[in-house]
Amino acid sequence: MESTSFIRFLFLILAAVVLLLFTRSWIHLPSPAADELDLLDCNRFSSWCTSKNRIQTKQTTPSSSSSTTRSASSSSAAVRDHSDDVPRHPLDPLTLREISAARSILLSQPPFSSSPSSVIFHTLTLSEPDKSSVEAWSKGSPLPARRASVVARFKGESYALTVDLASGALTTLPIPASGFPTMTIEDMSSSTWAPLSDAAFNSTVLARGVRLSDVACLPISPGWYGEKEEGRRLIKVQCYSAEGTANFYMRPIEGLTVLLDMDTKEVVSISEQGRGIPIPKSAGTDYRYEAVAGFNDDPPRLGLKPISIEQPAGPSFEVEEGGHMVRWAGWEFHLKADARAGVVVSRVRARDPDTGEWRGVMHKGFVSELFVPYMDPTDAWYFKTYMDAGEYGFGLQAMPLVPLNDCPRNAHYMDGVFAAADGRPYVRENMVCIFERYAGDIAWRHSESPITGMDQIREARPKVTLMARMAASVANYDYIIDWEFQTDGLIRVKVGLSGILMVKGTPFSHLNQFPQNEDMYGTILSENVIGVIHDHYITFHLDLDVDGANNSFVKVRMAREDANPGESPRTSYIKATRQVAKTEKDAQIKMKLYEPSEFHVINPSKTTRVGNPVGYKVVPAATAASLLDHDDPPQRRGAFTNNQIWVTPYNESEEWAGGLFVYQSKGEDTLAVWSERDRAIENRDIVLWYTLGFHHIPCQEDYPIMPTVSASFDLKPVNFFESNPILSAPPNFEKDLPVCVAAAASA
Fold first, then answer.
1. Dihedral over Cα of 314, 320, 322, 323: its sign
2. Helix or strand or coil: residue 641?
3. 98-117 in b/e burial notation, b at 16+ Cβ within 10 A?
4. Other C-beta atoms within 10 Å of 601: how many?
5. Is residue 180 within 8 Å of residue 666, measured between CB atoms?
6. Looking at the predicted structure, is the pLDDT value of residue 62 above 50?
7. End-to-end CA distance of the chain
8. In contact, 176 and 656? CB cutoff 8 Å
9. 3-state secondary structure 417-468
10. Between vectors from CA 398 to CA 468 and to CA 668, what angle results, nearest 5°?
11. Rounded to 5 degrees, what are φ and ψ at 531?
12. C-alpha distance from residue 430 to each of 80, 86, 744 (Å)
């Protein structure tokens, strides 16, 4: 017995070391200096600040990162002190002091006061005031009551509450019938090292030829596949060999899956289906600059010379000092980081060029959920159907943006202020950036031909836009979310995918070795490596309030109309027919290439001078639709992707398309379920939901790291303005542009 206990103790010590190594690579902790290795204090980059290693309300100076990041940071993003922050707008996120106050209030009241250390905070964020209060508020007026929204677990039970920061009152809210709250960073990181305390797991890893010191593991949400998985929080853990590379994702210990009780860290079962599958090679997998090009070398830049946008007179946009209001070129909006959604854009208003009036466009827009199902039904893969916002926290996975590379030199940065699992606040620096973008695009142009006799007319205007950007690194995958505001009233929302593929090991090193009738479930990318086919669906919550809250959804259907015989040499033309959606089911849209439509959100009570209702339209670009069986368990949970567009009446409790509690949920609290009520939506306060999709069949160019692939959609004014709103935009003249001289040339 003593011998067994001693062995377990050694495994725990080893596990702690592996946890440190893994956490640094998975959540991108910067390299600490020698005197910063005390895990009882962590810096502002840390996403794993918890009850065991937390940041105090008074922030410390972050430690340095790699040489590349350090030199970039020194010239761009400044460190900001948030200890004295105060809210300036009703939608401003909770400050450090407010998070601490909400935590103290909750822990002082029953049942939580009986054992404060047993309370785990899964969400601690602003409970936003009702829309009417926000709309009625004006700068300089007192803020509406500040409340915190809390989702917590206490002694095995989940709670949803609001905390009134002034009165200290707690209000308990209903919770969903199934599922659990979003994982905390501590849930994820502690689950990755827990298997190392299990002797059977360690023996299996060693038998596969991997040293325990090289093991790196990932926490994988299990989805829901029946009653046997109910009643406790479970997580699956799969592991990799980090020997010889930072890109351990390319070296899976294929077929080894640990089922873990996330609360007790007990190993429930171990599945080993990968015996005989080698660990793929490490050569050629590292993607770091110093590994690929040689850190001290001067490698070629593909023949490219550096490009930088310079603004000697400063940017054209303004960010309220210490606040979140952004103003630029006829736009005004509120911008903030969010632990679940990533970034939230609110109170979007456009200035009318004719009247100077600020007019409403959108009350709130954000990523509501992501659904990423992998297309491999085998034992080690069938459950990989991630919901990155509701299970992992899209904002929790956001890493500090890299100045000069993620964002240009002229960018302004915003931080995120979040609560750790113990309810204490920490800061995620440089989580969002804002910058003006000019890529040589044209806002509008026209030149006359000599045949008109007016060939002296040559008019063109440059297109400059404003970008608000965040990036989340959800383990292997990186998502880039851009909100791009154009001077003509258009908002372009773009999603970029990069990062590293989730791959499976195979005994085969060449395509010709695979049995003819064996399904690979993907593409062979390198020796013993298969990139598995998968989808990405990103569902946006778009609370459009076009010139007011009460709007209608109009489907403008385009169809061929046959010309009457003898009336025209033409035999057909296209006719547009407008159909106003009365109820939710009228507005459930599946895109069809040969049955095209436009999708308008209009204000029926406001018209232009010639009688058209003012509005905005959703303009889809490339997208994809789910092909899964609607009764497939993951698709039941991800049923919000069954349509590309949904429209629902506004309900403050309906924000998350996959439900409030997504983790291990059955799919009973989703957008698809809410919309089955078929509620009235005509001339009401409505929310439009748009799902942008990708089918991804991996290819060798995605190995070992993927070039970014993007898709987007537009929110475009349709009869919102009386005419082209940028008609009076000035052209560029040489005399107005800065003359930039390279540093080497000016020395």
1. negative
2. helix
3. bbbbbbebbbeeeebeeeee
4. 24
5. no
6. no
7. 73
8. no
9. EEECCCCCEEEEEEEEEEEEECCCCEEEEEECCHHHCCCCCEEEEECCEEEE
10. 100
11. -90, 120
12. 9, 19, 29
Catalytic: which of 240, 386, 392, 477? 477
**Annotated catalytic, 650?**
no
φ, ψ of residue 414 to 5 degrees: the values are -125, 145
* Angle in degrees, CA 636, 474, 490, rounded to 5: 80
Q: What is the dihedral of CA 296, 302, 305, 309, to 10 degrees?
A: -100
Question: What sign has the CA pseudo-torsion 663, 667, 668, 670?
Answer: positive
- Whether the model clears a pTM of 0.85, i.e. scores above it, the answer is yes
Q: How far apart are CA 221 and CA 123, in angstroms?
A: 18
Q: Is the distance from CB of 665 to CB of 176 less than 8 angstroms? A: yes
Across 491-571, where does the E strand assignment appear? 491-499, 503-505, 522-526, 529-532, 534-544, 550-562
The tokens describing 36, both together, are 């910063």
Model pLDDT for residues 584-627, shown as the tens digit of each residue: 999 999 999 999 999 999 999 999 999 999 999 999 999 999 99
DSSP class of residue 492 equals: E
- In tens, the pLDDT along 555-583 reads 999 999 999 999 999 999 999 999 999 99
Token representation of residue 568 = 């025209």
| Ranges of H-type helices in 275-427 | 289
> HEC string of 366-395?
EEEEEEEEECCCCCCCCCCEECHHHHHCCC
What is the DSSP-derived secondary structure letter of residue 142? P
The answer for residues whose C-beta is within 8 angstroms of residue 500's C-beta and 6 or more apart is 247, 249, 250, 287, 476, 477, 704, 705, 706
Angle between helices 185-193 and 2-26 (to 10 degrees): 130
DSSP lists the bridge partners of residue 687 as 648
| Separation of alpha carbons 677 and 257, rounded Å | 40
Q: Is 415 annotated in the active site?
A: no
Q: How far apart are CA 108 and CA 196, in angstroms?
A: 37
Residues whose CB is less than 8 angstroms from the CB of residue 463 and which lie 6 or more positions away in sequence, other chains included: 438, 441, 442, 443, 486, 487
Q: Which of 92, 338, 388, 488 is catalytic?
A: 388
Among the listed residues 202, 149, 174, 157, the one whose alpha carbon sits nearest the alpha carbon of residue 12: 202
